[in-house]
Design goal:
The protein is of the alpha/beta class and about 350 residues long. The protein is about 35% helix and about 25% strand. Helix 4 (about 185-190) packs antiparallel against helix 11 (about 345-355).
């Protein structure tokens, strides 16, 4: 960050009252009974608060700007306690820490607790920072897994229209942003599948940055979208990064999807994205690499007819995806394909039809 950018950042933080003690941001981890991945950040001047539907625009703006004008805390020692064991790591220059942890004895499946205790290398209180989180451990009993984009896939974002996107980001919060009609019911159906006792996992791979993690978690919880693991872009800081949120290359999504394919080699995936970015192309590449493990590609159509025609042409060049692709702006149409494949029940489909028609 340049001296000018740092000065602007400090001025904005003072103006909005964002000078706060450092915090640990703990992200949901994931893995198998013998291998898990855990990560987080240690940041200074990062405002944390519980959003309410009646929050003023100023409060929403203050909270969102805090996400991009926080300061990384490098070289902070973080003790991670998980499954009766401990590891100590240090944050990098971006305040980020991550660990890949292997185990000799199998872990219990499902959501498991993890605890973080970080030293505070900055002057002033507190001496240590504590945070609790969760790690999803695969039991291997699911039918399939879901990889989903976020912006303009589940969350109305106008990601290709910068001014409309920034207006939404600044003036709304997790309680007032809207999902596309039928999305919560459809995702609930996919996670339940045809065998409700075996919950299918969902991974949200997005070009949104880690800055928006708490917002996305709160949004999904508020709207009844199933609990999942988020894999986001690197943390960004400063005015320029904020104005370009969600931008840049989207190839990182393919890298993250490949990573999940490697971590869960016995799992097949349903891929869900939108036509506004490069999801269709990235998912086609993934299907080329893993033709037997991509069960379906669902693309929400949010762009012009010409772009939709380009996507149709793209998938015509991938015969291994014949009958597996659904390009539609209607959640019910996509759910109908999932029903025809036997992945959700007729009762679930009827519910999705009803709530989609009602705009819910």
């Amino acid at each position: 960050m340049s001296l000018l950018s740092r000065h602007i950042s400090l001025t904005i933080k003072k103006w909005l009252g964002l000078r706060t003690p450092p915090v640990v941001l703990a992200y949901r981890g994931y893995g198998t009974p013998y291998r898990v991945f855990i990560r987080g950040h240690v940041l200074d001047d990062r405002l944390l608060y519980e959003p309410e539907a009646g929050d003023s625009k100023r409060k929403n703006i203050r909270a969102m700007i805090s996400r991009y004008f926080s300061t990384a805390v490098p070289d902070a020692e973080v003790q991670i306690e998980f499954a009766g064991q401990q590891k100590v790591v240090h944050t990098d220059e971006a305040g980020h820490f991550a660990v890949e942890w292997t185990f000799d004895q199998p872990l219990k499946g499902g959501w498991q607790p993890v605890k973080f205790i970080a030293s505070n290398p900055l002057p002033g209180p507190p001496d240590s920072l504590e945070r609790h989180g969760e790690v999803w451990v695969s039991s291997g009993q699911h039918e399939y897994a879901v990889i989903s984009d976020v912006d303009d896939t589940i969350l109305v974002s106008h990601a290709t229209q910068i001014l409309r996107k920034l207006r939404l980001i600044l003036t709304k919060n997790a309680k007032t942003r809207l999902p596309f009609p039928g999305v919560p019911a459809f995702y609930q159906a996919l996670c339940r599948g045809r065998q409700p006792e075996n919950r299918n996992p969902i991974f949200f791979i997005s070009s949104s940055e880690w800055n928006l993690y708490d917002f996305l978690v709160d949004f999904c919880e508020e709207r009844g979208i199933p609990k999942g693991v988020f894999l986001l872009q690197n943390l960004k800081m400063g005015l320029r990064d904020f104005l370009g949120t969600g931008g840049g290359s989207h190839n990182h999504k393919l890298d993250k999807a490949r990573h999940l394919m490697e971590v869960f080699p016995d799992t097949s995936f349903i891929l869900i994205g939108d036509s506004g970015q490069r999801d269709a192309h990235l998912y086609a590449d993934l299907a080329d690499e893993y033709p037997d493990r991509v069960m379906a590609v669902y693309i929400r159509d949010v762009t012009r007819k010409k772009n939709s025609e380009t996507i149709h042409e793209l998938y015509q060049d991938h015969p291994q995806l014949e009958g597996k692709v659904c390009l539609s702006g209607d959640t019910y149409a996509t759910a109908r394909h999932a029903f025809e494949q036997g992945w959700i029940s007729g009762e679930q489909l009827a519910q999705i039809k009803e709530v989609t028609a009602e705009g819910g």
